[in-house]
Amino acid sequence: MSEAKLLTVQARAPFEVYYVGNAYTVTATNKVGKFDILPGHADFFSIIDPDSEVIIQTEKEEINIKVSNGIITVKDDTVLLFLNI
After folding, report:
1. Which of 24, 51, 61, 73 has the most beta carbons within 10 angstroms of its beta carbon?
2. Rounded Cα distance, 24 and 59, in Å
């Protein structure tokens, strides 16, 4: 799996950095339901559902972040998450 294309991910809150690095997938939930961001995803912007969870799948681990609110944006395989704002 190490040769697969990766996302560049930054997951931050005003006073905390949850994760900065590469990942295979990012999973979150919005008003429509649960969704996955994979390499090659179209440009995207969404509000993350309150009281949900963001899952970042890296090569070594799965990172689970409890979210009270936030936004996600995707552009050119870069995923920016602004959480608990």
Report:
1. 24
2. 7
Q: Could you count the other beta carbons within 10 Å of the beta carbon of residue 47?
A: 12
- Phi, psi dihedrals of residue 65, rounded to the nearest 5°: -120, 120
Please tell me the pTM assigned to this model.
Answer: 0.93
Domain residue spans in the chain? 7-83
**CATH of 7-83 among 2.60.15.10, 3.40.50.720, 3.40.50.920, 2.60.120.10:** 2.60.15.10
Measured from the Cβ of residue 37, the count of other Cβ atoms closer than 10 Å reads 23
User: pLDDT by residue (tens digit) across 17-42?
Assistant: 999 999 999 999 999 999 999 999 99
Amino acid 4: pLDDT: 73
Residues 6+ apart with CB under 8 A from 83: 11, 12, 13, 18, 48, 54, 65, 67, 68, 69, 70
